[in-house]
Design goal:
Helices cover about 40% and strands about 15% of the residues. It has about 375 residues and is α/β, with parallel strands linked by helices. Helix 8 links the parallel strand 6 and strand 7. Keywords: Aminotransferase, Pyridoxal phosphate, Transferase.
Amino acid sequence: MTSIISKLPQTGTTIFTTMSALANEVGAINLSQGFPDFETSPELIKLANTALKKGHNQYAPMAGVLALREQIAKKTEKLYGTIYNPDTEITITAGGTQAIFTAITAMIHPMDEVIIFEPAYDSYAPAIKLMGGIVKSLELEPPDYRISWNMVKRLINHKTKMIILNSPHNPTATILHKEDIEELSNLVKTQDIWILSDEVYEHLIYDGETHHSMAMYPELQQRSFIVASFGKPFHATGWKVGYCMAPALLMSEFRKVHQFLVFSVNTPIQYAIAEYLKNENHYLDLPAFFQQKRDYFRKGLEQSKFKLLPCSGSYFQSVTYKDITDEKDSDFALRLTREFGVASIPVSGFYSKGTDHHVLRFCFAKRQETLDKAVDRLLKI
């Protein structure tokens, strides 16, 4: 038999798959993988059904249904004051992860260096490696996980081609601040460096904070691929519809890859979301909706032995457990699932070196009764 030379020899089953499978096996409450357990909007379901019945069941245009691209452009202009051309600067993708992979594939060549910040969403590094690129990771530390821009400056050299940012951040629930934007702008203004900005949690931001999208800053917008998703905000992660925005020159390269990766995306769902976006309250009301869940979950955990870390965005709450045990986070997460019936994600799984700060991540995008049951079990520890 011909031998296989793996392109990702160190890659195995993701921690998300492992924890969700264990939760199903033992009947635990699954606060590990990031998906809601409440229903998608009946209005949005109806719109999808209508699109199906209207016959929108064949291939969509490669760049996506124009009506949806137009609504994205309107939303972006309203929120961030920046105009994107729906024809040349917006592409609909099969979820955020595909958009991330496509941008990296389009821009990264062998031996190019890409800076990522860990803990990091687990698709970044493998995509870079598959393109022959070199991952330059900067580890962030709890409780605030702030970026040291002086350290970033030290990582930059003539091989640096891209910086990947994620705000609101998965898994730490932190966000970029105005001073971060200023530091980033100063770093890249004289460099030939692209930015890949993962903004899938853009609408899940709390306490009156501002989401600092790359679209808001012309000097950054002109070098940025901005990735977003409809699955997270509209409680329909299984639909796998997202999008990428970039200046026309960058988007041209993005589409060269996109057309051979998936070509086009679920047609009736695109029509449904396009119609749904016409009511701006469907996304403007999201911060209050998810903040209520965050506050409810945090209040419930205040009486536990877990220590709550800051949560400014996303639908994840991280906690430290140093007052409970000195076990590795992966071991404690497994025991927590088996013995107490609550599944979480050990944050060491988001570090390439498995760095363990004794932090677990819980997803609070759940029904109130689910959160009540989970908190009741966690209080028994």
